[in-house]
């Protein structure tokens, strides 16, 4: 297909040579969703964020990528140094990032990588009233899809239990929900100030992350208390934002998150990168220091992290030794067989290897499937080592 790189160059204010080169190096991919063609930026390219999508329609509509959020390793003095005067603390939800947009009167859900996800697009249409995007087609609703029943980051959130089907004998609950955290202009990436954002989302009755508090940037003690409370509730962490969104947000996560990330990382130990593991370990060091832990608390943290690492790794080795396949499992609901097939094809396009573990038609005609994502390196390497291969 012919792609007009000169038009793309004008639209994005990026030299045509850079764009051509990026196509060649596959930094830009060409994709299709139904009859809609679009390109996606797999990496940041000059001022174009990773995950930016450009539609090859008449308007060449652009949806900018969601910017990276940098992390504070210590809250004090980072917040004082970084923010202007006040900080809004929002909960950081642990799901996957989605931008919802209206392109030529069609509502689409775009993932962090810049692809239109058929699963998410359909769920969003069921979960949310999208009048807001009809009234303001230039905005993107940036939010987190959370819950157990999604194909990317399955974590249970009690507040998103929805009954999908019920009769005398059965109740089926799908654990899935969506919370908006930013309202941005989809071409400029400019955010609405937090109060304005919340007012607008309330007006349209759209679920959004509610501020946990607004503080002076010196009030680190209060913010630390919020982190402790979230940790005890097994929640992920916080995102700190300037009330007017004039400086970029900062994130900070709980011990519980580091613990559960490490459990996952060591379960699939040869597939998740070493950087992933190392960065989580480092966070624990700074957190223990900042929270001024004594002997006992330090030991507790050490035990917890040690368990996350050793227990999951040994479990994986045992599984392979029994001849079992290590997979990460997802239980998903689809309204129809067509929807299910469409999504499975999408996974294939993304080169994600999976096996179907269960497949069932429910009485209301919906489909429930369990898919297992196969972590090939972990399976193959452990198998090899157990047969005597040297490292
Ligand atoms: P990054 O590229 O920003 O480092 P990451 O993939 O490492 O991203 P995270 O560590 O989860 O992701 O942190 C950033 C992500 O947190 C955002 O992309 C967004 O999906 C998610 N998030 C959850 N809650 C919020 C919130 N209240 N405000 C902003 N982002 C949030
Ligand atoms: Mg996340």
UniProtKB/TrEMBL annotation:
Superkingdom of origin organism: Archaea
Residues covered by the RNA ligase domain: 86-253
Gene3D superfamilies: 3.10.450.740, 3.30.1490.70, 3.30.70.2160, DNA ligase/mRNA capping enzyme
Key words, A-Z: Ligase
GO molecular function list: ligase activity
The UniProt record lists the keyword Cell inner membrane: no
SUPFAM superfamilies, A to Z: DNA ligase/mRNA capping enzyme, catalytic domain
InterPro entries for this protein: Lig_Pab1020_C (IPR041596), RNA_ligase_dom_REL/Rnl2 (IPR021122), RNA_ligase_Pab1020 (IPR001072)
Domain RNA ligase Pab1020 C-terminal, chain residue ranges per copy: 264-389
Signal peptide interval: none
Name recorded for this polypeptide: RNA ligase
Originating organism: Methanothermococcus okinawensis
């Amino acid at each position: 297909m012919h792609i007009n790189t000169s038009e793309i160059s004008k639209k994005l204010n990026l030299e045509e040579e850079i764009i051509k080169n990026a196509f060649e190096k596959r930094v830009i991919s060409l994709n299709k969703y139904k009859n809609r063609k679009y390109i996606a930026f797999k990496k940041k390219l000059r001022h174009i964020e990773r995950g930016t999508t450009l539609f090859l329609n008449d308007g060449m509509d652009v949806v900018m990528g969601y910017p990276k959020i940098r992390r504070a390793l210590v809250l004090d003095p980072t917040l004082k140094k970084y923010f202007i005067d006040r900080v809004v603390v929002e909960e950081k939800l642990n799901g996957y990032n989605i931008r919802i947009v209206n392109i030529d009167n069609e509502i689409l859900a775009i993932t962090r990588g810049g692809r239109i996800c058929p699963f998410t697009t359909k769920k969003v249409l069921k979960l949310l009233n999208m009048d807001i995007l009809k009234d303001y087609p230039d905005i993107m609703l940036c939010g987190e899809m959370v819950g157990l029943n999604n194909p990317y980051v399955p974590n249970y959130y009690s507040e998103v239990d929805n009954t999908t089907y019920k009769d005398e004998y059965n109740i089926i609950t799908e654990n899935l929900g969506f919370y908006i955290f930013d309202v941005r202009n989809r071409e400029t990436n400019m955010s609405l100030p937090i109060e304005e954002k919340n007012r607008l989302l309330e007006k349209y009755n759209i679920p959004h992350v509610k501020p946990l508090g607004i503080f002076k940037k010196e009030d680190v003690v209060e913010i630390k208390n919020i982190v402790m409370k979230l940790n005890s509730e097994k929640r992920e962490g916080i995102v700190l934002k300037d009330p007017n969104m004039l400086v970029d947000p900062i994130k900070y996560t709980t011990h519980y998150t580091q613990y559960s990330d490490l459990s996952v990382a060591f379960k699939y130990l040869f597939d998740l990168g070493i950087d992933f593991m190392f960065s989580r370990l480092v966070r624990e060091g700074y957190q223990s220091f900042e929270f001024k832990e004594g002997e006992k608390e330090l030991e507790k943290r050490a035990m917890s992290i040690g368990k996350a690492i050793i227990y999951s790794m040994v479990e994986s080795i045992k599984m392979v030794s029994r001849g079992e396949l290590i997979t990460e499992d997802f239980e998903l609901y689809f309204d129809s067989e067509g929807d299910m097939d469409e999504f499975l094809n999408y996974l294939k396009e993304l080169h994600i290897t999976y096996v179907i573990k269960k497949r069932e038609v429910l009485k209301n005609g919906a489909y429930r499937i369990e898919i297992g994502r196969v972590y090939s390196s972990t399976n193959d390497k452990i198998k090899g080592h157990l047969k005597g291969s040297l490292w």
